[in-house]
Amino acid sequence: MAETSVDSDEECRISEGDYVVLKRGDVYKSVQVERRKKVIFEKQWIFMDNAIGVLYGSTFEVDSGGKLTLRNPINPEDPTDTKGAGLDNRHIVDDGKSQKLTRDDIESLKEQGLKGQEIIQQLIDNSTTFKAKTEFAQEKYIKKKKKKYESNITVLKPTSRILAMMYHGREPGKICHLRYDTLGQILTMGNIHAGSKIIVFETCAGLVLGSVMERMGGYGSVVQMYPGGGPVRAGMESFGFPKHFHSTLHEFPLCKVNALLSGTLNLDEKDMDSQSNGRSDEQSSSSQVSTDRPEESSSEPQSMEVSTDPAEAEKKMEKDKLREQKAQEKRARMEEKRKRLAAAAALLEGRNADGLVIASRFHPCPVLLGLLKFVAPSRPFVVYCQYREPLIECYTKLREQGGAISLRLTDTWLRHYQVLPNRTHPVLLMSGGGGYLLSGTTVSADAAATSRAQQKSSEPAAKRIKLDEIKSTSDSSA
Q1: Residues in Cβ contact with 202 at an 8 Å cutoff, skipping those fewer than 6 apart
Q2: Rg of the chain's alpha carbons, rounded to an integer?
Q3: What's the Cα-to-Cα distance from 57 to each of 116, 153, 341, rounded to whole Å?
Q4: How many whole angstroms separate alpha carbon 34 and alpha carbon 56?
Q5: In whole angstroms, how far apart are CA 356 and each of 18, 231, 375, 440?
């Protein structure tokens, strides 16, 4: 029990090399904790050295040198002294003369080493209209000044919700404008859980992939289908997963899906081409060296003396060793890549995946129809798209060809509320849309086709039987 408590305590503390999320207000940024490394956050230099060993969720104050100072967790909510408030703001005139402190005075206070709270208190004391403002207006004034003069940051542990809010607030185009509530619905509709085999195709900077791996907890297997030359995993790396999480991740290029389905996939073809190119380059370089030698020997006798210099011979030996070392490293990388490709192909060949998740900027219809063949029957799938029309086309195709039931096309809507005493109301600024989701459950295509055929053939027979019965009853009554 003691060892487990120590391990859990270490997981809750910031360590060197961990990925963390810095928060100031509604602004987030993902960084890696390293000693003596400058980090730019909100136009300010920060050193993360003092954050090592501190619990996640701690709040720090940034001094003028960029060093972090841990704030006292037991802190009053409003340290400023208001000393009463007015009834209304009708007599307040915004003429710019209510503040006695000038810009130079505020800069001198900063140079003297005053903290943000002390500067805010000085601004309140030197304001001629602060006491005449209402209590709500005073809180709004203090909040505005805190945002300007207090340099506090909170260090958070990365989660799918926090990273989704970070990407959506900073660069929504990188994640196809995927909102965190839509991401939660994707994980729920896809039935992502530990021990399952999930196929993921996404172009959201690795955010969806990392969220799936986080939900699975390092148990099971994830096959990432990627377009182009290699997978993009910047968002997944920001989660800071342990090493055993990466052993569950596999990758497979989307361009080889048809070859895998038809049984013509050749894993050694690309590697053989690369190796032959490397050997041809080595042969060409050696031939150039051999052709250069006679020219040097036939030119002048002095060149023979230069070629027999031990220093140059040693340099040449070092170059040859370096070239051979690079070739070996390249062959090792290609062999490792071939093994990963073979492992991913072995997982897909069984066609027994437990789920499919698609969230990309490409048209989802051909990708969905191709990857559904790797999913076992009675398994969920979910497709995200920023627009509705591509998903309508997917819905129509699936209804025509069969292989899926319980098809649902939904959109997500989210609105934040301000919850304060006597001031609870919806926030005026809100997200226009969170995209659309197409979800369903796979079934055996053969069974679906036979059931449809039986249904079509049985309907006319039933109608004829009913008509015959009606005619017989009418004849008997007559």
Answers
A1: 208, 209, 224, 357, 358, 359, 360
A2: 33
A3: 21, 10, 40
A4: 16
A5: 30, 17, 7, 10
Which two structure tokens, joined as six digits, stand for 347?
């997982």
**Do 46 and 54 contact (CB within 8 A), yes or no?**
no
Helix (H) or strand (E) holding 60: strand 59-62
DSSP state of 175: G
Q: Cβ atoms within 10 A of the Cβ of 251, count?
A: 18
**Residues 128/91, Cβ–Cβ less than 8 Å:** no
What is the three-state SS of 196-218? CEEEEEECCCCHHHHHHHHHHCC
**Structure tokens, 419:** 């919850």
Place of tokens 């003429």: 95
Burial class (CB in 10 A: 0-12, 13-18, 19+), 419: exposed
Lookup result for tokens 């920001």: 238
Q: Which residues contact 180 (CB under 8 A, 6 or more apart)?
A: 160, 161, 164, 165, 168
Average pLDDT per 10 consecutive residues for the chain, totaling 478 residues = 55 90 91 90 86 91 82 57 67 77 80 77 82 82 80 91 93 92 95 95 94 94 91 92 92 91 76 45 44 44 52 81 84 85 89 94 94 94 95 94 92 88 86 89 73 53 54 60
Q: Return d(Cα 378, Cα 314) in angstroms, integer.
A: 67
**Would you say 68 and 62 are in contact if contact means Cβ atoms under 8 Å apart?**
yes
| 34 φ, ψ (degrees, to nearest 5) | -140, 145
Nearest alpha-carbon partner for 355 in 369, 384, 376, 373? 376
Rounded Cα–Cα distance for residues 319 and 289 (Å): 13
